[in-house]
Design goal:
The complex is a heterodimer of chains A (about 325) and B (about 280). Chain A has about 325 residues and is α+β, with helices and mostly antiparallel strands. Chain A contains 9 helices and 17 strands. Chain A is elongated and about 80 Å long. Chain B has one domain: Orthogonal Bundle (MetI-like fold), CATH 1.10.3720.10. Chain B is globular and about 65 Å long. The N and C termini of chain B lie far apart (about 50 Å). The chains are: A alpha+beta (about 325), B mainly alpha (about 280).
C-alpha cells in the first residue's frame, strides 16, 4: 500500500471536514477522490500532502509515518487547481525548481528538465514565462514540475477544474496516458463523476467527511453501496420505492406481471434518447430513458398508459 | 456646474482635464519649478555656496544617513510585518493593523515629543538609563534616525500588503511541496513576487524620510554642524534671509526624491520590455 490514512479527523470550528477517515491507496494506481464540494476530499488530499494538519489520525506514505513530517520532507508532488505557477520564473526554471532546491548538478537538472518538458509537450516553450501559456499548458508545466522531484506519490487537486470543457477532456485523456507511462502512484480530487469513471483505476467516494465507498469504476457503478453513491455516479429515479437508473426502466404499453401502472405526463427528446416522466398510480414521478427508436416502436406519447418494470440485472438500491 | 452637466460628454471631459491640470500646476508644478529657477538665479553660485559650507555638507550627509538607515530598518521591518499580517491569524491583528497607520495620522511634532518622553536624556522614561550606559538618543543621531523611521514606518507595509494578498499562498505552498524550506521559499518565491511593491515602498520611504522636518526638529536639538539636518538647515537659512541658500538645499532634497522615482520608472519599464522580449 502506498498511502495509508488511518482514523483521520479534521474540524474547522464547528464544521467537520473529515470524520474518522481510514483509507488505503494502492501503489502505482490512479485513484480518484470523488465527491461533492465541501465533502472533504480536498482536505484529505491536503492532509496527505502535509499542506494541512489532521486533528488526529496518521498518514503513512510508502511505509514511512509522515503524520508529523512537514510538506517539504514528504517528497510528494502536488498540483494545484489554479496551477500555482511561479510567475517570475521561466517554464524551464519552474520545472527545475525542486531539483535546484535539492542542489543537483546543473547538467543533470538540464537533462531532466528537457526530458520532462518533452513528456508534457512543452519543449518549445522552455524559455517562456507562465503568463505566456494557456491554462492547459500551465497545468502541464505544473505537472512536469511536480514530477521533476520523482515524488513517491503525485497528488492533484481538481487539476482540470479551471479549464474549459474541451481542454479538460483532452487533458484527462492525456493524464491517463501519462500515468500509463510514468506509473507513479497518483491521487486526484474531482467532483466530476464522468472524469473519475473515465480516468481512474480506483474511485474513493467521499461525502460529508466520510468515505462512502471504495472500488473500481465498474464496481461502483454496478454495485453502489448506498443511495448516495448510486445517485452521485449517475442519473437515478425512484420506482416503487427503489432507486434505479432511468435507462434501466422498461416501459410497456401492455400490462406485464409486476409492472407498475402509470401515465406518461411528459416526454422530452434529447438527440437519440427520449426522456419520459411517468406518473404512477401510487403517485410517484418516475423518469424513464428510452432510445428514440424504441419509444417510437412502442408508440408512447404524453397521455399513454404504461407499465414500468426494472430491466433484469438492473442496478438497484 | 449645472451648465456643464447639460453639455455632452466631450466638453465635460475637457473641463475636467483643464481642472486637474490647473490644480496640479498651481499646487505642485509651479511652486516646485520656482524653487528650481530661484536656485539657479545666479547660475551655480547658490549650489557652490552650499557645497562650500562644511556645516551644510554635514547637514546633507546627516539627512542622507538618517534617511538611508531609517529606510533600511523600515524595509526589513515592513516586509516582516506584512508577512505577519497577511499570512498569519492572531488575536489583535486588526489592532496592530490600525496601529501601523498611526505614524501617518499623527503629526510629526507629536512623534518628536513622544520620543522625548521615552528617550529624553534628563526626564525621559528610558533615556537616563540609556545615557547611564553611555548611549545618547535625544539630541543625537540615533534620535534623528528613530524619529525619521517612525514617520515613514507604514509606507513599505502599505505597498506590500495588498500585493501579498493578491498573490495568495498557492505559489508558496507549491514551493514547499517541492522541498523548499521556509527561508528558501521566501527568497526564491515570495520576495521576487513582491519585488516591485518593496521597491516602491523603499522609494516612498526614502523620499518621506529625507523630507522629515517636525519630528526631527524636536529630537535633534538642531545643533549646527552636529545634529542639524538638511530640512532644518533650509528653515534656518530661510529665517536668516538667505533665501537663495534655502532654495538651493530645498532643490537638492527635491531632486533626490524626483530622481529615485525616475529610476524606478525606468527600471520598471525596462523589466516590462524584457518580459515582452522573451516571448
Amino acid at each position: 500500500m502506498s498511502i495509508e490514512v488511518t482514523g483521520v479527523n479534521k474540524r474547522y470550528g464547528d464544521f467537520v471536514a473529515l470524520d474518522d477517515v481510514t483509507l488505503k491507496i494502492p501503489t502505482g494506481q490512479l485513484t480518484a477522490l470523488l465527491g461533492p464540494s465541501g465533502g472533504g476530499k480536498t482536505t484529505l488530499l491536503r492532509i496527505i500532502a502535509g499542506l494541512e494538519e489532521a486533528d488526529s489520525g496518521t498518514v503513512v506514505i510508502e511505509g514511512t509515518d509522515a503524520t508529523r513530517l512537514p510538506v517539504q520532507k514528504r517528497n510528494v508532488g502536488f498540483v494545484f487547481q489554479h496551477y500555482a505557477a511561479f510567475k517570475h520564473l521561466s517554464v524551464a526554471r519552474n520545472v527545475a525548481f525542486g531539483l535546484e532546491i535539492r542542489k543537483r548538478p546543473k547538467p543533470e537538472i538540464k537533462a531532466k528538465v528537457d526530458e520532462l518538458l518533452e513528456l508534457v509537450h512543452l519543449g518549445q516553450f522552455a524559455d517562456r514565462l507562465p503568463s505566456q501559456l494557456s491554462g492547459g499548458q500551465r497545468q502541464r508545466m505544473a505537472l512536469a514540475r511536480a514530477l521533476a522531484i520523482e515524488p513517491s506519490v503525485l497528488l492533484l487537486d481538481e487539476p482540470f477544474g479551471a479549464l474549459d470543457a474541451k481542454v479538460r477532456k483532452e487533458l484527462r485523456d492525456w493524464l491517463r496516458r501519462l500515468h500509463d507511462e510514468v506509473h507513479v502512484t497518483t491521487v486526484f480530487v474531482t467532483h466530476d463523476q464522468e472524469e473519475a469513471l473515465e480516468v481512474a483505476d480506483e474511485i474513493v467516494v467521499i461525502n460529508g467527511g466520510r468515505v462512502e465507498q471504495v472500488g473500481a469504476p465498474d464496481d461502483l457503478y454496478d454495485t453502489p453501496a448506498n443511495d448516495f453513491v448510486m445517485s452521485f455516479l449517475g442519473e437515478v429515479t425512484r420506482l416503487d420505492g427503489v432507486l434505479v437508473r432511468p435507462h434501466d426502466v422498461d416501459a410497456s404499453p401492455t400490462p406485464v406481471s409486476g409492472g407498475i401502472e402509470g401515465t406518461v405526463s411528459r416526454s422530452l427528446r434529447i438527440g437519440f434518447e427520449v426522456r419520459l416522466t411517468v406518473l404512477t398510480v401510487a403517485g410517484e414521478d418516475v423518469t424513464v430513458e428510452l432510445t428514440r427508436t424504441h419509444a417510437r416502436a412502442l408508440g408512447l406519447d404524453v397521455g399513454s398508459t404504461v407499465w414500468l418494470t426494472a430491466v433484469p440485472g438492473a442496478t438497484t438500491v | 456646474m449645472a451648465e456643464t452637466r447639460r453639455r455632452p460628454a466631450g466638453p465635460l471631459a475637457y473641463t475636467l482635464r483643464i481642472l486637474v491640470t490647473a490644480y496640479l500646476l498651481l499646487l505642485v508644478a509651479w511652486p516646485v519649478a520656482l524653487v528650481v529657477t530661484h536656485t539657479f538665479d545666479n547660475g551655480l553660485e547658490a549650489l557652490r555656496a552650499v557645497f562650500g559650507d562644511p556645516d551644510l555638507v554635514l547637514a546633507l550627509r546627516l539627512s542622507a544617513y538618517a534617511a538611508v538607515v531609517a529606510t533600511a530598518l523600515n524595509t526589513v521591518f515592513g516586509v516582516a510585518v506584512s508577512l505577519l499580517l497577511v499570512r498569519n491569524e492572531f488575536p489583535g491583528k486588526r489592532v496592530l493593523s490600525a496601529l501601523l497607520d498611526l505614524p501617518l495620522s499623527v503629526s510629526p511634532i507629536v512623534v518628536g515629543l513622544a520620543l522625548m518622553l521615552v528617550y529624553g536624556g534628563r526626564n525621559g522614561w528610558f533615556g537616563p538609563t540609556l545615557e547611564g550606559w553611555g548611549f545618547r538618543v535625544i539630541f543625537s543621531t540615533p534620535g534623528i534616525v528613530m524619529a525619521t523611521a517612525f514617520v515613514s514606518l507604514p509606507l513599505v507595509i502599505r505597498e506590500v500588503v495588498p500585493v501579498l494578498k493578491e498573490i495568495g499562498t498557492d505559489q508558496e505552498q507549491a514551493a514547499r511541496s517541492l522541498g523548499a524550506s521556509g527561508w528558501q521559499t521566501f527568497w526564491r518565491i515570495t520576495l521576487p513576487s513582491i519585488k516591485w511593491a518593496v521597491v516602491y515602498g523603499v522609494v516612498l520611504t526614502l523620499a518621506r524620510s529625507l523630507g522629515e522636518f517636525g519630528a526631527v526638529k524636536v529630537v535633534s536639538g538642531n545643533v549646527l554642524g552636529e545634529t542639524r539636518t538638511a530640512t532644518l538647515a533650509v528653515e534656518e537659512k530661510y529665517l536668516n534671509f538667505d533665501q537663495q541658500g534655502a532654495y538651493a538645499i530645498a532643490f537638492l532634497l527635491a531632486s533626490v526624491s524626483v530622481l529615485s522615482i525616475l529610476i524606478v520608472f525606468v527600471l520598471r519599464a525596462r523589466s516590462g520590455r524584457h518580459h515582452r522580449e522573451v516571448s
